[in-house]
Amino acid sequence: AQSVSQHNHHVILSEAASLELGCNYSYGGTVNLFWYVQYPGQHLQLLLKYFSGDPLVKGIKGFEAEFIKSKFSFNLRKPSVQWSDTAEYFCAVNAPGNTGKLIFGQGTTLQVKP
Amino acid sequence: DGGITQSPKYLFRKEGQNVTLSCEQNLNHDAMYWYRQDPGQGLRLIYYSQIVNDFQKGDIAEGYSVSREKKESFPLTVTSAQKNPTAFYLCASTPDRGSSPLHFGNGTRLTVT
Prior knowledge:
Chain A is an all-beta fold. Chain A contains no helices and twelve strands.
């Protein structure tokens, strides 16, 4: 079945540590890729997106993600996390054919210790 | 201000009853979505609609129904056939077929006892 997988369910880091959250999808063809973040008690909001072009995309708050087509991956990175990055992170994929079917991964809870 | 309104915020129902969750948007978006969010399972797509009078099943449509009679409205009915209806339900919209980021509502937490 078509799916989006996030490998890490719960990550705990100390401030200033580097972050990498994995995301893999099982669709072939052209896809649009997104990372969303949900801070405690808040809406989901967009961190970054990839549609085409440079596979390294930069988002808000110092986050970036790299699209590796051969690995069907779109991993999220940040060189140095802050306590305020504590949140739940979701990878999402727009299925091929631009059908509008947006599928989310299971989410990764990031806890940053001060 | 434009946005998505979901009502009510909390909803309680007895088992065996159908219940309808409201979602209204004034963003003039064509596409609308319903997701359910459960701990450890992320957001799972229930139904989505690209245009008025048309909608498609998502990955977990069983026990749910929707309608899209107006562009701004996309109500979700949780029927008695849904085996595990207690959850947090999120409505979202986007101006096109998923190539733009989603705008989310505040969600409705449904508890069925």
